[in-house]
Specification:
This protein has 149 residues and is an alpha+beta fold. It has one domain (2-144): Orthogonal Bundle (Arc Repressor Mutant, subunit A), CATH 1.10.10.10. The protein has 6 helices and 6 strands. The protein has helices spanning 18-29, 36-43, 51-63, 82-88, 108-120, 137-144, and strands spanning 2-4, 67-70, 75-78, 90-96, 102-105, 128-134. A hairpin with a 4-residue loop joins strand 2 and strand 3. Helix 1 (18-29) packs across helix 3.
């Protein structure tokens, strides 16, 4: 099941700190993954001055399943479907190298295979994040000039 990050607005948990709420709002409003320094630049007028303030907020948002860190980009996105990966314990992302679009998805078969491997090898799986890099259909279409089949 895929979820785009285009319109990913969530209800605000009541227990967020001011900084966490500001960072989550910034991620919600972004149309691309943001680095911690991108977030800090956008929040300077709101009183955030130090990278540590942003990193602490991001850590809590990730812990609560409201945001994800994209390792390959060293950037963050708002979770597109809060309940999706919490139930499955994993998150996967298709990242377009052309336009930067990020689609979040989960696949039960892949999750089962990874969990099976972990069990066979006595590996205590804590979290699974998969990142696919490539070009989205829109970028491929605009590059070739013709519709994709």
């Amino acid at each position: 099941m895929a979820h785009t990050h285009d319109d990913h607005h969530h209800e605000r948990p009541r227990d967020l700190t001011r900084n966490q709420d500001l960072v989550l709002s910034t991620l919600n409003e972004a149309h691309e993954p943001l680095s911690a320094y991108d977030i800090l630049d956008r929040l300077r007028e709101d009183g955030l001055r130090a990278p540590l303030q942003v990193y602490r907020a991001l850590d809590k948002l990730i812990e609560q399943g409201l945001a994800h860190r994209l390792e390959s980009l060293n950037a963050f996105v708002c979770c597109a479907d809060v309940g999706c990966h919490r139930a499955r314990g994993s998150a996967a992302f298709a990242i377009c190298s052309g336009c930067g679009r990020v689609d979040e998805f989960a696949d039960d078969e892949v999750n089962a295979r990874l969990a099976g491997w972990a069990a066979e090898h006595g590996f205590a799986l804590e979290r699974t994040t998969i990142e696919l890099r490539g070009r989205c259909a829109e970028c491929r279409k605009s590059q070739s000039g013709s519709p994709l089949r």
